[in-house]
Amino acid sequence: MLIIYDVVVKRFTHSDEAKHNLFSNWILWLLGEVSAPFSYIKQPEILVKKGHSALCSEQSYLLQTLAEKQNIRTRAVGLNGHVVMEAWYENDWHLYDPDLEVVPFVDGELILSLDELAKSSELVSEFYKGRGTSEYTQSIVDIIASREDNSFTSYPRLVLFEWKTNVLFYFEKLANILKWLMPGMFLFFGLRFYFKKGEKACAV
What we know:
Elements: H1 2-11, E1 13-14, H2 26-34, H3 44-50, E2 53-54, H4 56-69, E3 73-78, E4 83-89, E5 92-96, E6 105-106, E7 110-111, H5 114-118, H6 121-128, H7 134-145, E8 151-153, H8 167-203
């Protein structure tokens, strides 16, 4: 996990610029003009191929995908203003925050779970200090310490009862097909209409 985590941390910086544009996917770009979440790149293979910046959610999902390929069970944890991921091994969850580059080691070995870390504001401050101003650090402490509204998702693995939480991920996959299929259909039916109209004119 630490090797995979290191790869993601070294590759990506925090930014909301990992978005689809008119040329990469015109459908998601147009929808993104109405609602920003549609334009964000969610598919890990596209993030790796196209970009060097990503949001916390995108970096966490990418780390999950790489971990899942190594048969490590993972889950994304949606906090109130931040997204991290946890990996299950050694009979417990372990927190990884690739966006803010935090892995909560204790005694140089044990990696805490989010729940364990959230119980101590002092520990959160210790691990997240130096990521910004003291006000920013305090906001992170508040986000992590507030556990009542956390959401857990096994993204990107499809789980029957969690499909709604992954809907944008699967919509992006569909849009990557439709971005070619729809213009092809318009062209096909346009040409068909044009030649039929020409045949009728010749018949007259």
